[in-house]
Amino acid sequence: MAKAPNLSEGKRAPAFAMPCDGGGKIASKDLSGKIIVLYFYPKDDTSGCTREGIEFTEALAKFKRQGAVVIGVSKDSVAKHDKFKDKHGLKVILGSDEDGKVLEKYGVWIEKSMYGRKYMGIERATFLIDTKGKLNRIWHKVKVPGHVDEVLEAVKAVAKAAKAAAKA
Fold it and tell me: Can you give the pTM of this predicted structure?
């Protein structure tokens, strides 16, 4: 599956709704006016995904101070997310997209290759959605080291622009 062709910075972010850890639901319509960091990761409890979850958790207070909500999304079940969060002390919201509808909307359900074998999987990617529901930044093929800091800097810029626009 190719990247969703209509996803580019400055365009409206696709709406999403899905169950999340703790038996709740998370939906973009309920986050109107907030900055959303939507990060997609392949699988709970793998090394890179665990590191990413821990790093977002460690920086969560900084994201919240900027008015941002951080949501990690994979195809893992809510029950798996709950175990993953408990095991590693994660504080970010984890969305469960078992049917892959949100993954498809964001173009991150892609063909991958390992040891010559082709298979479908989740591309590690992050989408920064501004207070007006527009895609501000998109990171594809994310490498975990340094990524959370880069996203936080982008969130700070979005928050600053939103404050300036509110004053104008």
Answer: 0.93
